[in-house]
Write a structure and sequence with these properties.
The protein has 209 residues and is of the alpha/beta class. The protein has 7 helices and 7 strands. The chain has one domain: Rossmann fold, CATH 3.40.50.150. The protein has helices at 2-16, 27-40, 54-66, 99-107, 117-122, 145-151, 172-180, and strands spanning 44-48, 71-75, 111-113, 129-134, 152-161, 185-188, 202-206. Strands 3-2-1-4-5-7-6 form a 7-stranded mixed beta sheet, with helices on both faces. The protein binds S-adenosylmethionine. S-adenosylmethionine binds next to helix 3.
Length: 209
């Protein structure tokens, strides 16, 4: 059960770190992601946008718990400019991963891909991933929404972050796509505590094709 404990210890540690609101995703949403990986048993995971590493660490803990072979691809263009990633930089829109964290992921055999999201997604083969976590290009990702559904396997699962509200109009293309194609989904966006950040929205999509 050590990997379950690793995950809860990790989440408690980030929760207690100030400012909690700067965490990449809410603890509640990380728990959903962790549970889905434990239950879905994905063989191929794609993460778009590493940021603070809350989702990345959650994915790693879940893969370790599953004790099965799983290819974990992580795309983040910040790896193209490694000098600036040597320190934690909060840029207003997002936090870049630290250089040390990228090295940790490398040691954990994560397949690190230092490309722009659009370049990677548009050139990726179809039906490749069981699970996609999308939290990179908030301003433009709607332009290649079709490709995200294309590269995810039938009945695969897609998580989109920051989709609630009107902060990122481009991401609304995903809502349009799932509504137009009657694709099953659930938007986790409720807070029950004053200190949560769930209102940013964690959209879970079942990729019915
Ligand atoms: C909001 S953060 C991701 C937060 C992450 N889910 C977490 O748990 O901390 C966004 C990340 O996506 C990366 N990113 C932003 N735009 C991108 C793009 N066009 N292509 C690739 N990576 C991008 C940034 O460098 C940053 O690391």
């Amino acid at each position: 059960m050590q990997n379950l404990k690793n995950q809860t210890n990790f989440l408690e540690a980030i929760y207690n770190k100030e400012p909690y609101k700067d965490a990449g995703i809410d603890v509640a949403h990380a728990m959903v992601l962790f549970g889905v990986i434990l239950a879905q048993k994905p063989k191929n995971i794609l993460e778009l946008g590493i940021g603070t590493g809350v989702a990345s660490e959650t994915i790693l803990n879940a893969i370790k718990y599953n004790s099965m072979k799983c290819q974990y691809d992580a795309v983040d263009f910040c790896m193209q400019f490694s000098e600036t990633t040597k320190r934690y930089e909060y840029q207003g829109h997002w936090a870049y991963p630290t250089h040390e964290y990228i090295e940790k992921l490398r040691k954990e055999n994560v397949n690190l891909i230092g490309l722009d999201e659009r370049v990677f997604v548009e050139n990726c083969e179809s039906n490749k991933y069981d699970l996609i976590i999308s939290d990179a290009d908030h301003e433009r990702a709607g332009e290649w929404a079709d490709h995200i559904f294309r590269i995810c396997k039938p009945n695969g699962i897609i998580f989109m972050h920051d989709i609630a509200g009107t902060w990122y109009p481009s991401l609304q293309k995903y809502m349009e796509y799932i509504n137009n194609h009657s694709i099953p989904h659930y938007l986790f966006e409720k807070n029950s505590r004053g200190d949560e950040i769930c209102q940013r929205g964690w959209l879970m999509i079942i990729n019915k094709k």
